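Quick question, first post here. What does this chain look like in 3D?
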Amino acid sequence: MKTLIILATTSLFTLFSSNPIDDDCTCKGFKLYGKIKIVENFPDLTVKVVENFPDLKVKLVENFPDKCGQWKMVDNFPDTKIKFVENFPDVTIKYVENFPGKP
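> Answer (accepted):
Ran it through. Tokens below.
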């Protein structure tokens, strides 16, 4: 009985605390760094901007967006296309000036 309770508690903890970002800084196979394009239709990922408890801290850069959380906004040839949403995002972000990446 104790084992079942521990397993149920662990499963609930994993369900509610799991970060959708993989160790290689991807979500659903799409990079969360590099050249990013904002679209309205057919996004690779949906994103919500939050102030507290983000999945990813994002710094907007002009050059060399090659580390986790560094985004260069582009209109052509993006690595990942995103759409900003208010409900049911794939990932939540917070814009920062320093220390981008997973919190």
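DSSP finds one helix and eight strands in the chain.
Residues 20-95 form one domain.
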